[in-house]
Amino acid sequence: xxxxxxxxxxxxxxxxxxxxxxxxxxxxxxxxxxxxxxxxxxxxxxxxxxxxxxxxxxxxxxxxxxxxxxxxxxxxxxxxxxxxxxxxxxxxxxxxxxxxxxxxxxxxxxxxxxxxxxxxxxxxxxxxxxxxxxxxxxxxxxxxxxxxxxxxxxxxxxxxxxxxxxxxxxxxxxxxxxxxxxxxxxxxxxxxxxxxxxxxxxxxxxxxxxxxxxxxxxxxxxxxxxxxxxxxxxxxxxxxxxxxxxxxxxxxxxxxxxxxxxxxxxxxxxxxxxxxxxxxxxxxxxxxxxxxxxxx
Length: 296
Prior knowledge:
By secondary structure, the protein is an alpha/beta fold. The chain contains 9 helices and 12 strands. It has helices at about 1-10, 25-40, 125-135, 140-155, 165-175, 180-190, 195-205, 220-230, 275-280; strands at about 15-20, 45-50, 65, 75-80, 100-105, 115, 205-210, 215-220, 250-260, 260-270, 285, 290-295. Helix 2 runs parallel beside helix 3, helix 3 runs antiparallel to helix 4 (about 140-155) and helix 4 packs parallel to helix 6 (about 180-190).
């Protein structure tokens, strides 16, 4: 229940915020926005990620501690935007004692002592916005930056079907609170390095089509990745690429940047239930965006 999560947060003096491996904009933005808001209450808050944040999230990077450098004690560990314990990666070691889970993935079964999962929210950032409001915390421009980034990225720039009128209303209120939406939009939705453009071109060349063009698949096996210098970081954000082709309903992005470890990302528009398929292979996610990982 949301009330239980809020009480746990209010009673804790020191809080550890965690999210999933290879964190996306929703994960990073939600953690950052929550951290800034809780610090405004005088709480000690740590944000830990399995690996250092990439240059893509440089605007938030200074507030995050890599797992191998973290040695602090804390009263409460909170996992945000993370569907199951496997997705915590190495940080699962830190998810102990008093724990809470805040998420919007429908497949999340609630693995914390306190859990709040709202599958109707377009992003975890929307839930954090509601929690901040319920706790009567005044949004700072910094917190607004993080939450705006969360909403922006998990809705694909407010164009995915998970976007609602309430999503837009919250985005507007975040802008009113001082979110630097022009800079955030440019950095997270528009700018791409030449390396990303190069790899995007390779992905386009590897596209295969099935079901009369309704399914598009990109496959990058390990030998191809090694030959072309493709890493997990360099293809971050490309999972939706196959679905952007005209006439495609479902895009499948398959990558093996580490030999023997294959990541499959599914994105659909109207027909396919991406979460149902992913759950069958040990993964999870949303109706229109989900994935799983297989190891040989």
